[in-house]
């Protein structure tokens, strides 16, 4: 004969499902697990020594924590969750009995609170346009030159290749006014030319016969594809091409160029009194 499920709760002291109990809220009744191992665990949690929990027994929802009771069908439509109420609630596969309302409180041992479900990410057209902040956008904490310690990355000008920036040329042109107002180190001057889509910064030296020589030149270009870049020249020789994408990076390049040490060149005897030379150095200077 087929097994008929009980219509009352098996838990000790619980009156759910009994016909003579009137005036109490209606609660759902669930089957016990058919798996013997799980049923043994439920039986242990019920603390009922007079009877064994059989497969035809039933328990009510008062013994089960709410997150184990499934009351809705959940469907994902166009990356959005749609919830439809169930006709009859059911239990999750990991449901256990932890609440015994009619027994001493120390016998009820609740499970750890589950984590909230992660919401399904919805597609947003603005997501792709958001800029990702990189380490290059962060302001530098290095000491500035002009009497202070030299930046550690001054040696980057010895290389001929730079690191590509993240901003496009259109973005740089739209916000290129900052190139005209960079905080330049002492003795650096700014120049704009009709045939240059950018700004030139340089240091100059006054030589004999009132001639002016630019020793360090840093040109910031704005019309380059994909990224904005700069060229660094020392005494007429191109030493590096560096990329930049913000005002902080451009000012940083100026600081590094200012801290770069130039070679003083060969000794010129005409610039020093003869008392500083011995016979050997005097002959070398005159040669």
UniProtKB/TrEMBL annotation:
The keyword DNA-binding applies. Residues 1-100 form the THAP-type domain. InterPro entries: THAP_Znf. Residues 107-154 are annotated as: Disordered. Keywords: DNA-binding, Metal-binding, Zinc, Zinc-finger. Residues 137-149 have a biased composition (Polar residues). One of its GO terms (molecular function) is DNA binding. The keyword Metal-binding applies. It comes from the Eukaryota. Residues 110-120 have a biased composition (Basic residues). This is THAP-type domain-containing protein. It comes from Rhipicephalus microplus.
């Amino acid at each position: 004969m087929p097994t008929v499920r009980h219509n009352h709760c098996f838990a000790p002291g619980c009156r759910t499902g009994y016909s003579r109990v009137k005036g109490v809220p209606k609660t759902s009744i669930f089957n016990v697990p058919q798996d013997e191992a799980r049923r043994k665990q439920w039986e242990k949690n019920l603390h009922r020594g007079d009877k064994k929990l059989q497969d035809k027994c039933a328990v009510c929802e008062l013994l089960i924590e709410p997150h184990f009771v499934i009351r809705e069908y959940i469907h994902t439509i166009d990356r959005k969750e749609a919830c439809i109420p169930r006709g009859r609630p059911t239990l999750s596969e990991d449901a256990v009995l932890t609440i015994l309302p009619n027994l001493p409180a120390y016998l009820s041992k609740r499970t750890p609170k589950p984590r909230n479900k992660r919401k399904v990410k919805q597609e947003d057209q603005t997501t792709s346009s958001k800029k990702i902040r990189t380490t290059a956008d962060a302001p530098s904490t290095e000491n500035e030159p002009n009497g202070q310690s030299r930046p550690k990355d001054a040696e980057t000008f010895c290389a001929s290749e730079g690191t590509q920036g993240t901003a496009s040329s259109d973005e740089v042109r739209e916000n290129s006014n900052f190139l005209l107002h960079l905080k330049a180190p002492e003795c650096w001057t700014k120049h704009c030319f009709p045939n240059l889509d950018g700004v030139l910064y340089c240091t100059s030296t006054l030589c004999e016969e009132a001639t002016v020589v630019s020793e360090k030149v840093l040109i910031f270009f704005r019309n380059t594809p994909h990224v904005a870049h700069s060229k660094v020249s020392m005494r007429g020789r191109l030493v590096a091409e560096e990329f930049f994408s913000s005002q902080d990076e451009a000012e940083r390049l100026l600081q590094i160029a200012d801290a770069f040490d130039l070679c003083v060149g060969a000794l010129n005897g005409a610039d020093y009194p003869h008392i500083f030379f011995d016979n050997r150095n005097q002959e070398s200077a005159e040669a």
